[in-house]
Request: fold
Amino acid sequence: MGSSRDIAIGPVAVVSILLGNLLQDEVDPIESKAEYLRLAFTATFFAGVFQAALGFFRLGFIIDFLSHAAIIGFMGGAAITIGLQQLKGFLGIRNFTKDTDIVSVMRSVWRPVHHGWNWQTIMIATSCLIFLLIAKYIAKKNKKLFWVSAIAPLISVIVSTFFVYITRADKKGVAIVNHIKKGLNPSSASQIYFSGPHLKQGLRIGAIAGMVALTEGVAIGRTFAAMKDYQLDGNKEMLAMGTMNVIGSLTSCYVATGSFSRSAVNYMAGCWTPVSNIVMSMVVMLTLLVITPLFKYTPNAVLAAIIISAVLYLIDIEAAYTIWKVDKFDFVACMGAFLGVIFISIEIGLLIAVCISFTKILLHVTRLKTAKLGKLPGTTIYRNVEQYAETIKIPGVLIVRVDAAIYFTNANYARERILRWLRDEQERAKENKETEIKFLIVVLSPVSDIDTSGIHALEELLVSLKKHDIQLLLSNPGVEVIHKLQSSEFIEHIGRDRIFLTVEDAVKACAPEASENV
Reply:
């Protein structure tokens, strides 16, 4: 159903830990296991419904409200949170906090050692982690050896399981997976909550997990689509993932999405179609039917090491540094999401990321850009005086360009900003004993649209200028803008002879001699 050829679907670390934490806040997985599972299936069902609805109604643009900077911070914070949670298995700690914030986790790790670190567990986990990191380094240095990194986790599991079995390390305190039920997933259709108090919880958890899963999945799909130069339909991807999770919720699955590591293996292995997902599913099915008993002695430590090695690469310090250099507000969004995740919770971190992203959007919408223009000597070209120092101003003329659509959100700001340019220029002319400003040219070529509030702001600007005996001229308004100005009769107020095709035409109309001398 999707348009991506490379994306590999399955459980991923970020969504898994997010879903687990949200569920544990509502139901204890040890004391109320059946209820916990039912809530997980319910959340998965509604995550799928949420995702499919976004795709069906073509609302994929909503996930773009999470800026790249916010995602970098969120993923980095989630990676640290996930890694810290694995310290329980890595160190062999039996009593561990259920909270995800860094303070609670570190307190649980470093409190008096009656909780019992296990040196055998630490040795297994450390050796596996070193092996996995070396494998990743080899694969990174030589792309032809990508399979070394891909097969390293499986080798770690096989070797550690074998040694635990022959040494019976589980008798010495090494925690193992124990029994894994054989067979395919049973139907869970009857276990989904469609009423009662857990319905609201399932809806909330599903929406959050679904949004994060969708953001990660579509981002991964776009990455590989760009690498192979084909078009990805985000709405199709959402509809496909939503349908997948709805069906999954009926067959004892929890929220799945595109996995970057598996998709990377797909890409490096030469995958060209989604058939790779079918092959992968068949291998998983074969594992469930035949070889699950072999994993009984797999130590939890090796699973912790595999997860830690995977999430380390989600922390992109270089990208955060680039964000800092390029846009400080983006960096605030990045760090807000990062700190929110590691010091409070994953869902609060995500909320902070969304809020900061929305704030940035609102700031850009309400505080549109304007620029004062000057003429490049010997040409008919007018450019931003702050960008081109060699530009020359036309005596008695102020040229201001508006660089965005004018709506009710920024109309008053646009008018005030233009008047501020005018006041500053008037004061400067008075101090330097230059020609007083008699003409204001507003360049509207970048303005793609205008609403009634924007037109009203132009009318107020016109009235204000007439009081100071300053003439208003407009340059190159677009077809949408000129149509609305005509419909509102603003053109009759300003005069048809006050609208020009180019800035040069407007300048010649008000200061012909000055224009020719520049």
